Every structure is written in structure tokens, then in C-alpha cells.
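User: Here's a chain of 332 residues. Predict its fold as C-alpha cells.
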Amino acid sequence: MDVSGTEQLSLCIRYVDIPDLKAPVLREDFVGFIPINDQSSENLSNVILQRCDELNLDMTKCVGQGYDGAANMAGHLSGVQTRIRENYPKARYIHCASHRLNLTLSNVMSVPAIRNCLGVVSQVVNLFRNHSNANKNFQETIQEHAPDSKKKRLLRLCGTRFIERHDSIIVFLELFECIVMALEEIAQRTWTISSTASTLHSASQKSEFLVSSVVCEKLFSLTLPLSIFLQNKSSDLVSAMKYANEVLSSLRQMRETANDTFTEIFQVASKFSANLFDTELQAPRVTSRQKSSANLQTTSNEEYFRVTTLIPCIDTLIQNLTDRFIKNEDIL
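Assistant: Prediction complete.
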């Protein structure tokens, strides 16, 4: 949807060009935006075919079509892809790989600790980016305590493109010490945002938040190369499956060595807790009546956070990568 409130259909054409009988070149051209008033699959398919006809494209040579997973686009009964295949059966539908990865990563939010962590990060980023006084205080803190840092500004956590959150988490952790000091100082002021800063300062001290933020950085670093590759116009389905399998292998290896992997994560989070808050990481107290799956009896703080954060995240990623990528290898 554009700034005027009109829905726009983005259309791209991907093809192989052989200029002057030279080596073939894979090209991906943006055709343009097409205003859409009717979002039904029938109208969308007609609009796409009409535009292709205007470009004098021979649709009998079309061997693929790619969209997101929305029902009106991907529906196997009456979606756009089905309607187009009725006339051009060679146009095999492929769910956009970048969108599949985005859905895979977004499902990590099903782990409560990760969902809460990213919620706090988002609120902190918004506080410093939306309020001039807070941003000024933050910049002064960076200048005083981290003058050599190349990062001077927090990055927003994109609400729809989960795959872009990796850089946000990296910058957040790099500037975390300055963030904590700025929040503490703002909380002591009499500004309208002081109460919010106080709440976020308290939230940033929690062991669950510290551990979860490091877990996010660790896991997102595995999927980042795949994300970058999928956004390259020269990428193809075979290579995408190969990269997905490599990420899956890394995740499975991490799952097998979860104890060692989490020990490293726990040590990083422990340093944050000790250096910034002069405390040790502590698991929440367990009640006598179990009402939550995260309310577990464990022998140590490290074990508690391992089984409530890292392991559920890895299992979720493995399951979703398998369902959304590996199970589609039959297309090849």
C-alpha cells in the first residue's frame, strides 16, 4: 500500500538473457507497480497476465511463478498461481524463499523468553529514536563511554521482515552498556519518559532478558548468510536448498552440543550481568504447583535457561526449516 492508501502489485520478471550468442546471463527486472482495487485471485491473475501480454511475453515459456504464501496468491484451489497454471501448466509455483525464511524466524517468537526479549529491545529502540531528549542523552553517553564505537544509533526491529533483526540485535548488544547507563540517568529525571525508562532499565537487568538477547544473536548469525543469499538476484532454487541444508546441519550440530554451546552463551550473559548490574544470573523461583511449561525443576541456573531458551529455539528453527525448505526438495 502506498502513501495514498492504494494497494500496489509489484511485478518482477526473471529470465535468462543470451546477448549476441555470448554466455547466458540470469536477469531479474522490476517491471513496475500496478494499482490494485480488487485483491481477489481472479482479478490479480488477470492483471498479471494482461501486463505480461503488454510486454509481449510468451507465457507458454514461463516455467515458474513466485509469491508469498497468502491464500489469494498461493491457494491450490483458486489462488493466483492455480489460475495461471490452468492456462500455462509449466509455470510451477514456488513459495518465495525469503518469505519462507522470514516465517521460519518469526516462529521463534513462540518461545516466551525470546518474544519478551525482542519486545523489550523494540521498546528501548523506540524510546531513544522517538524522543529527542533521550536520544541526546544516549549520544552523550556513547561519546563519553564508547567514543571509538562505530555504532552511534540503534536500529529498529522491523515488524514484518524478521530476517533484518540480526543487525538490530548486534548493535543493541554492542551498545548495551551505554543503553543501560542512559536509561538509568533518564529514569532519574523528571521527564515524561522517565517512568518508561525506569521500567525498561529494570527489564534489561533480568536474567531471562540477558540470556535471550545473546541466544538471539547466536542463532540469527547462523541464518544471516542464507538471508543475504536469498536476496541476491543471481540466487537459484538449487543453491537456496543447499544453503538451507547447510544452516540446518549447523543447527542440528548445535542441538547435539547444546550444553557446550550454551555454556558460551551463559558466560557472555553472565559478564553483562556482573559488569553492569553486579549480580549473577538467576533462574526464577519454582512454585509448588506447576502451571507453566517453563516452570521447571533444574539443578542449576545454566541448565534452566538452556532448556527454556536455547533448546526450544533450535528445535523450532529445525522443524520450520525442514517443513518450509527441505520438504520441498521434490520440486527439483
